[in-house]
Every structure is written in structure tokens, then in C-alpha cells.
Amino acid sequence: MKSPDKFYLRTENQEGRCTVFLNGELDLETASQMRAAMSTLVELSDRELVLNLRDLRYIDSTGIGILVSVVRARHAKSAPFLVEAIPPNIRKLFDMTGISPFLSGSSPSSN
Amino acid sequence: MLIKDDIITIFVPAAAEYVDLARLTLYGVASKMGFSFEEIEDMKVALSEACNNAVLHAYGDLPEGTTFSAPDEQPRVEIRFIKRADSLSIVVKDDGSSFDAAAVARNAESLHGKAVHELEAGGLGLYLMQALMDQVEVSSGSGTQVMMTKRLSKSGEWA
Questions:
Q1: Going along chain A, which residue ranges are E strands?
Q2: pTM for this structure?
Q3: Which end of chain A, N or C, is surrounded by fewer C-beta atoms within 10 Å?
Q4: ipTM of this complex
């Protein structure tokens, strides 16, 4: 039933940096796909992990919950993580929920 | 009251793959009413959060000795759009396990001011519903009902 292009991600590896481009709608239906992809990517502690949201059209608390897990996992490994190219409608949700400070790469608090 | 509210009701199976169908229906209803793009985006997220909860709780805690696979009827979610002259109310109703939704609603919490190790995703859905809509009422009995309302702003008119 799920259309193949509802959500997909593409990974680009450069030196010291792994960028994941998210495309489409990240919701309850596509969350497992995102979770599976992130579970291996968060382990890459020798490089910076970057999520590029330029082509992400939709996110809700399901997707934000996955970002929370990624923030926590990367922080536990002292491995850098940041989110870039956040569209305005998604930025609004990040600001509302209070996750924004944890996505900028510099940790808002050290504990 | 002489003018009756127009009501549009859809039923969808309580499954994740139908939540986007609810969003599409909302888009049609809300854009015809004259809501702005941003207001519709807000409502899409709020409606999805309510549907997510309905889907996740649809099968509930099963009684001892019963099996997951053979419900008499496939669980479904009712979504009702109540159009008024100056507002849109969306009702999301399920017959799932009646968890204490009202208590959860009181505990809806954001991540503001938290340290990394305190971050938790639980409660964010209801927090967003409350932040994005003008009014949210959660009630549970046999199943859960969420009613949320967005007022139509009159930005294009002389108020």
C-alpha cells in the first residue's frame, strides 16, 4: 500500500562526515525505515553525522522522537551530530518542542 | 441555532498507512474553508498526532488468553470534521484500550530546558496538538476521543 517514494533516504560519505538526505514524509508509517537506517549510522563515531532535511516535507512527534534517540546516542558516544537545511514548517515544530538547541551541533549543555 | 454545522466523517482502518489519508482529507476540507497554508500545516500535524495515538492504542492490552490476530472486527478510527462559519473542529475517535488519556494530556511536555540525558519523546504528540490548535479536549471511556478546534483567522477581511 505504501508508495515507494513516500519516504526515502540517501547517504553521502565525505571525509570525516556522513550526510543523510531525508526525502518525503517521516511519519508513523515510515518511522521504522528511518529507525533502521539510523541504528547503524549512529554507530559511526569517527565522523560527523549530518541530517539534511531540505527535501523532507513532513514530520511529526514520531520523527522527532527518532531525532531524540539519535541526539542521545551520539551524545553518549561524544560523537558530533547536526541537522541542516531545515524547512520553515519543520523548524517551527522543532522550536515548539524544544529540540532545536540539540540539533545545531554544539551541545546546549554538557551534562 | 438555525444554521446547521456541516459534518464530514471518514472511517479508516486503525493502521499507520492510513494516517496520511486523514491528512489529505483535512487538506481538502480546510483549504475549501479558506485556512492559510500555515494553519493547514499546523492542523495536519495535530490530526496526525491524534491518529497516531489511535493507531498505537487500537489493539490495546489484550485480556489473558486472547490472541492478537483475530478481532471480530478490524479496529478503525473515526475522523469527523465539523465545519463552522468561523472554525473547524476535528474529532478523532477510536475504540481502543481506554488508557487514561486525560492524565496523559495533563503531562504533555516539551523538551525545553532539559539536558540531553533527560530528553524523552513521550508526551510530545499531545504537547504539539495543544500548541498547534486553539482548543484540545481529550476524553476516554470506551475508547478515546480527541476533539480539537482551530479558529479561522480573518486576515483577509476587515475585522
A1: 7-14, 17-26, 48-59, 81-84
A2: 0.88
A3: N
A4: 0.90
